[in-house]
Amino acid sequence: MFTTDRAFSGFSVDDIDAARSFYRDILGLETVDDEMGFFSLRLASGASVFVYPKPNHEPASFTILNFPTDDVEAAVDELNARGVTTKIYRDDEIATDEKGIQRGRGPTIAWFRDPAGNVLSVLDA
């Protein structure tokens, strides 16, 4: 029978060890290994996100994980201090400032990538 009570999301990476280190050591998320060498991210909300290696991985062309925050600029400064580079866009559709923060077109938001090239963001809560 179809049920939704244990639904979860997932995404692929090209290097499972680099991804685990990034999410655990750089972003500070709880990672839980499974018996096959994959891992899950345990989010403070109680949600779980499955991370798995994929041969010929191609980064997602969309934002796979969003981190709401009360202060995007402070979050960007903290991420930059941890060695994370925010993405700076200069086109008309998605224009960001020198820190990589887009303001005034929807929520204030900044994008960055994991080691596999997947896009993540910090945005106004």
Automatic annotation (TrEMBL):
Pfam families: Glyoxalase. Signal peptide: none annotated. Residues 3-125 form the VOC domain. It comes from Microbacterium hatanonis. InterPro entries: Glyas_Bleomycin-R_OHBP_Dase (IPR029068), Glyas_Fos-R_dOase_dom (IPR004360), VOC_core (IPR037523). This is VOC family protein. Gene3D superfamilies: 2,3-Dihydroxybiphenyl 1,2-Dioxygenase, domain 1 (3.10.180.10).
